[in-house]
Amino acid sequence: MKGKLYALTVAALILFVVGPSTASSLDMPLEGITPGRMKQLFEDLAAFTDSAPPSVTRLVFTDTDMQARKHIKQLMTDAGLIIREDAMGNIFGRWQGSDPDAGVVLSGSHSDSIVLGGRYDGTVGVLGAISAIKALREAGFKPVKSIEAIMFSTEEASRFNIPCLGSRGITGHLDPSILDSYKDENGTSFAEAARAVGYAAASAQEFADKTHWKRTGLKIDAFVELHIEQGPHLEAEGFDIGIVEAIAAPSMIRVEFTGKGGHGGGMPMLQRNDPSMAAAELALTIEKAALGTGASETVATVGLWDQSPNIYNAIPRKVQLDIDIRDTVGERRDSVIQTAFDSAAEIAARRKCGFSTKTLFAYPPGTGDERILNAIENASNKLGLSSKRMISRGYHDAGLIAQIAPTAMIFIPCRDGLSHHPDEYASPEQIANGVKILALTLAQLAGSPSSEGKDEL
User: For residue 378, how many C-alpha atoms fall within 13 Å in the half-sphere facing its CB?
Assistant: First the structure.
C-alpha cells in the first residue's frame, strides 16, 4: 500500500512539473500540417525575391519585402487571425483566447533575408507559427490564453548593418539614435525607409516608444521560435528536433589602427609603423583569448578587414577590423572583448600606431525557460520524434524576447548545416515535423477550457 501511495505521489509531482497530456493539448489531429502543404507555402513565399532562384534576396522595406508582407498578412487572415502592426513594422496575428486578460503565447520569426540567402532562414518560424495556429483551430482546440503569430521586422543586418531591430524595439534594447544613424548603401536610414512605406513616427525616439511592449500593452506569457538549426549537429547525429536551452549572445566590436604608410620598397622595416601588422597581431591575440576560455561556446571571428590603401606594394595607412565575439555566457564573452581592447592599446603603443576601439552592439544571451522546454519535449515524445537539448550558436529574435518573457526555441535539421546560402534546405517532412511540435507546444502553453484550474505545465 505504501509503495502504491509513493508511486501515485511521484506521478502527481511529474504531472505538476511537466503538465498533463490532456486530449485538449496533445491528443488532437493536425491534418493540415502536411509535407505537401509546407512545400507549397515555402515555394509561394520564395517567389518574393530580388535575385534568381534558388537564392532569396528580400531586404526590409523594399518593394519585394512589402509584397511579401502583404502575402504573410493574407495567410494570417486566412488562418482567422486578427492583424495589427506596430510602428517599426512588426506584424502580429492574434487568435483570441477565452481569457483576454491572460498573457499571450507568442510564436514567430522573420521573413527578411540577407543578399543571396536561402528560403528557410526565419521563414520556417513565420509560416510555421501561422500553420500551427491554423491547424489548432481546425482541430477544434479552444485556447484560454490568446495565441499570436509574429513576423519580426528587420532581423537581418543586410540593409541597415545592425540586426534584430524589430525585437530590440519591442523589448526596449534599442538606442533610438541608430534608427537615424545607421544607413543603407544609398544613404537611407531605417526611419526614412520605414516612413516611406507607411510606418509613421515623427522621430527615432517615437519609433522606439511606439514599439516598446509596455506602450503597446503586449503581455507575453511565453514565446516559442521555430527555426532551422543553421548548423550540422541534428543532421549528423540523426535527431529530428533540437530543444534550444541557450542562445549565444553576439557582439560586434570595431578596432582601427593607423600609421604613416609609405612605399613598400623604399621604407625600411625598422622605420615602419604598419597598421596591418598591428591588426594581424590583434587577430591572433583574439583567437588565443577565445580559445583560452576553455569553453566551446566562446567564438570570435575577425570577419571584416578594411585596409587602405589596399595594394601589394604600399604600406597601409589605415586598417579597420570588425570583429564578432559571442558566447552563451555574457560575462565570458565580455572578458574576451576587454582582452581585445586592452591588447589593441598595448599593440598600438608598441608598434607606434594610432588606434581606436568601439563596441557597435553587444546583445544579451538568451536562456530557455524550463516550462517551455518541457512542453517541447512532451510534444516530441507524443509524436515519436527524437530530440536533444542543445544551444543555438546563431542569434535570433528569441534571444531578445528572453529578456522580458519566458522563451525557448525549436530547431529542425537543415541539409549539411548550410544557411545564409542559396542552397539552404530543410525537407518538407522536417518542416512538417517542426510545425507539429510547435502546434502541440502552443496548445500546452495556451491551455484549454478542459484544463482550467489545473497546472497545464
Answer: 26
User: In 221-303, which ranges are continuous DSSP H helix?
Assistant: 233-237, 275-292
Pairwise CA distance, residues 341 & 87, whole Å: 37
Q: Are the C-beta atoms of residues 253 and 360 closer than 8 Å to each other? A: yes
**Contacts (Cβ under 8 Å, ≥6 apart) of 63:** none
Report the alpha-carbon distance of residue 75 to residue 380 in Å, rounded. 26
Domain ranges within the chain, ordered by starting residue: 19-248+365-451, 249-362
Cell match 509584397: residue? 67
For 125-139, the pLDDT digits (tens) are 999 999 999 999 999
Tell which residue, 76, 74, 165, 75, has the closest CA to residue 112: 165
Please report, as a single letter, which amino acid is at residue 38.
Answer: M
Position 1 scores a pLDDT of 43
**How large is the average pLDDT for residues 279-297?**
98
Please tell us whether the domain made up of 249-362 is placed in CATH 3.30.70.360. Answer: yes
DSSP string spanning 183-237? Answer: B-TTS-BHHHHHHHTT---SSHHHHHHHHSHHHHT--EEEEEEEEE-SSSHHHHH
Task: Name the fold adopted by 19-248+365-451.
Answer: Aminopeptidase (3.40.630)
What integer is the mean pLDDT of 167-174? 97
Cα Rg of the chain, angstroms:
24
Taking the C-alpha atoms of residue 428 and residue 135, their distance in angstroms, rounded to an integer, is 16
* Over residues 379-383, mean pLDDT: 97
Three-class SS of 61-98: CCHHHHHHHHHHHHHHHHCCCEEEECCCCCEEEEECCC
CA–CA separation, 244 and 160 (whole Å)? 28
Q: According to the model, what pLDDT value does residue 426 have?
A: 98
What is the per-residue pLDDT across 176-233, written as a single tens digit (0 to 9) for each? 999 999 999 999 999 999 999 999 899 999 999 999 999 999 999 999 999 999 999 9
CA atoms within 13 Å, Cβ hemisphere of 449: 5
